[in-house]
Amino acid sequence: MSVFSGSLDELRKSARLGGGDQRVQRQHQQGKQTARERIDLLLDPGTFQEIGLFAVNSLHSAGNGTGRAFGDGVITGKGKINDQPVYVFAQDFTVKGGSVGKVHGRKIARIMDLAIQNGAPLIGLNDSGGARIQEGVNSLAAYGEIFYRNVQASGVIPQISIILGPCAGGAVYSPAITDFVFMVEGTSQMFITGPEVIREVTQEEIELESLGGAGIHHTHSGVAHFSYKDEAQAFEGVRQLLSFLPANNLTPPLSIPSLDPTDRPTPELEDIVPDKTDEPYDIKEVISILVDGGEFFEIQKDYAPNIVVGFSRLNGQVVGIVANQPDHLAGVLDINASDKAARFIRFCDNFHIPLLTLVDTPGFLPGIDQEHEGIIRHGAKMIFAYAEASVPKITLILRKAYGGAYIVMGSKHLAGDQNFAWPEAEIAVMGPQGAVKILHRKELAQAADPQALQRELAQSYRENLASPFLAAGEGYLDDIIAPLESRARIIHALETFQNKRVSVPQRKHGNIPL
After folding, report:
1. Which CATH class is domain 268-430+467-496?
2. pLDDT single digits (tens) 299-343
3. Which of 91, 420, 463, 513 could form a cystine bridge with 98, CB 3.0-4.6 A?
């Protein structure tokens, strides 16, 4: 008698039960949805079409204690988000703990192939106990097949990982290769080795959440791009992110009509940005004034907050924004900020998203730790990313741009397409106070009133060496613009370069300083 006895409808119902009522209840008790509930919450209603419903590892080992384990612990298929096609896999923790075996991995690999072939975003809902130990090398091979496809899809289609449970060992590397990682507070973790292994090897004591929870990865490691309080909020975040992204690298992002006038004056910017170069302010207020309707979708909000990156629209066109944040560490560039910005810049370049760079930085962060940890190598990543990017690049210097940070932040020298500055901006090798102390050390030491002399010399430095008109005179700035005309001029620049074409050297790929 066939193990598949029963009507088709009965078999489908059985397959969709997953691990059964008890395991579903356990999932709910942990504050987690089931894989099918998650798909229903994420996708547009009624659009999901499952692929591989009846896949099993083998006819004789399909049982999981409650009957057949159809699907082998992962649900795969296609659907729509915001009425746009997407491909999805959702690991089902109620079936063998969502562990990855041969058939499980084969299903994921198949859906990844379809996403690449059809040019649609790939979304992975990760909730897995990791490698299926009893399948040995077949489990490891399954992971390898997934990793390979993550790399092949990189820069071809957007890849999004949603971590909805434990993600350990080899399971963390697929999300790490993808473009964006979402986590849920309290229920999702990512780590290479768990607390027990760490305790055994290093004698260190640590809890799961402190080791690899959403808070850690969103604020300290930078592994997670987004952290949300519950699954429903995370799914809404994914939907919002996808509204800014194209389906693939051959299609531009969707432009939508804007009700925000393109020539809207922005005099408020003069009130937001202080005259004194060392006074803090929130760059996100500037972004809100410049963009359509004040809408800004920030990426990695709590990681390296001295630089701000995210998506917005100008005259309905999607733009990627990179901006120094004077409200945190004065907007300096450090190791983490350089990594964060470089990765975002490269993503935008992959998917034809123009870059708007807002500059207000005193330079790179000095310090022994920064030097020893490789600020040179990490800062070079930003140089590489900007110089490599062939999308339209518009840069506005708001207040100050000193030293190497001036070059790094989308300067004309890294092939910026349109570079502006406000009239009071300062562009120089270093800030006036520090420069004067070096250039006029003897005069200051001999002066009757060194503080008064230093103020006088600093003002002279600003006028004669740091004025943006000097940079404009050399052709390093295309124009000096007033704060109130900033939005209009940026939009006009984006329109001017919207059909930009760049010839690049024939090569396999550059060697970014990783």
Report:
1. alpha beta
2. 999 999 999 999 999 999 999 999 999 999 999 999 999 999 999
3. 91
